[in-house]
Structure of Molybdenum transport system permease:
Amino acid sequence: MSTSFLSPDDWAAIWLTLELASFTTILLLVLATPLAWWLAHTPSRWRGPIGAVVTLPLVLPPTVIGFYLLITMGPNGPLGQLTHALGLGYLPFTFAGLVVGSLVYSLPFAVQPLQRAFEGLGRRPLEVAATLGASRIDSFFSVALPLARPGFITAAVLTFAHTVGEFGIVLMLGGNIPGKTRVVSVQIYDHVEALEYTQAHWLAGGMVVFAFVVLVALQWLQPRDKNHASPL
């Protein structure tokens, strides 16, 4: 894509979007792994309700999630009061606020592929590791994580792509601050509002190509197993 078709604001939005998606993906892989493991193996009666909470972002409108996060992280919200007391200020309309919103909104796209991968392992590999003297932690890191590698790849790709495509939640939490909270989806919206359809076409077309590449990559990365369940 030639730079002549993209303004400095467009490039700033692109780089900010990539930065947001990268931070979100790394953090969610760390946070979602123990949660997915627990959901895959726990007999607790809380498994259903907690699994439902994890899945909520798939069915709730992004503006609903963004609204409640805005209230929670605002001056009168518990998280806002905590961050203010810690000297961190308030998170709405900051990049950190976008990261928090993205963590919540993309959570099921990280947890569910990992949960399916852990469930697919069964207990046999861990039992074998235990008979060889491995502790539970050793078995998890040396056996479970390597065997669940396809799930981690799927979770990373889906989380990154889903974060890139966010609109409603980032607009609610971050507003439209150039170079700070204005991501690609918001930049496209601005172009359309200004009747700058050519610029909107270049960014929107890039998003279409990106989405297509992601879907093709997922097809190639998934195990060649007819009985392999969908990651979501």
